[in-house]
From TrEMBL:
Belongs to the short-chain dehydrogenases/reductases (SDR) family. It comes from Streptomyces longispororuber. This is Beta-ketoacyl-ACP reductase. GO terms for molecular function: oxidoreductase activity, acting on the CH-OH group of donors, NAD or NADP as acceptor. PROSITE patterns: ADH_SHORT. Residues 3-173 form the Ketoreductase domain. Keywords: Oxidoreductase.
């Protein structure tokens, strides 16, 4: 059955791979983007998740074009990596506003229709860094760790209405963010990964697609790592 799907940050990287996976499965998929054009075959909606009015406008457009959102994948995120002594308050709060408060904004808006339908899927994209920490990423790790508590609280609030809320925690993935690493940084990170390589966006997308599927109807409040073993034990 074709469902109405919205993926924030779905115009590139893990979000785009997820959008393509869900579209291939027959869903109607919209993606948010802040600039440029949406990828071919997907409904593009301009939206900055730090702006509540833009979030509401994006949902209204999706509802008009493909119906109430039945599956929300919260993937929009930013990173401003710095050691704590060099990190400004703006560096810290801007990352939390996008990565954590942004998810609050879109999840709150999505639940309107899901509560009426008494069904829905919310998948939050966190990070292995949010579970194990990383030097120079205190702001990013704090935002991604906060998503775990947020999602599990929602899972308890919304479970009786047939709405599942789960977290997917990717490790280092072949995206624009990883391309910015130096060779030395990449090698140091690879040594921490038992499988010895980066994840492909499609591998993360396959996990997201599963927890958003009808087959995962009895999974909620879960944190699913896709990190090659880097964060095992956390």
């Amino acid at each position: 059955m074709s469902r109405s799907v919205l993926i924030t940050g779905g115009s590139r990287g893990i979000g785009l791979a997820t959008a393509r996976a869900l579209r291939a499965a027959g869903d109607r998929v919209a993606v948010t983007h802040r600039g440029g054009e949406a990828p071919a075959g997907l409904l593009g909606v301009r939206c900055d998740v730090t702006d509540a009015e833009q979030v509401d406008a994006a949902f209204r457009k999706v509802e008009e074009e493909q119906g109430p959102v039945e599956v929300l994948v919260a993937c929009a995120g930013v990173a401003h990596d710095k050691l704590l002594m060099r990190m400004t308050e703006e560096d810290f709060t801007s990352v939390l506003d996008t990565n954590l408060t942004g998810v609050y904004r879109v999840a709150k808006r999505a639940t309107r229709g899901m509560l009426r339908a008494r069904s829905g899927r919310i998948v939050v994209i966190s990070s292995a860094v949010g579970l194990r920490g990383e030097a120079g990423q205190a702001n990013y790790a704090a935002s991604k760790a906060g998503l775990v508590g947020f999602a599990r609280s929602l899972a308890r609030e919304l479970g009786s209405r047939g709405i599942t809320v789960n977290v997917v925690a990717p490790g280092l993935t072949e995206t624009a963010m990883s391309e910015a690493l130096t060779d030395e940084q990449r090698e140091a990170l690879l040594r921490q990964i038992p499988l010895g390589r980066l994840a492909r966006p499609e591998e993360v997308a396959a996990t997201v697609a599963f927890v958003a599927s009808p087959e995962a109807a009895y999974i909620t409040g879960a944190v699913v790592p896709v990190d090659g073993g880097a964060g095992m034990g956390h």
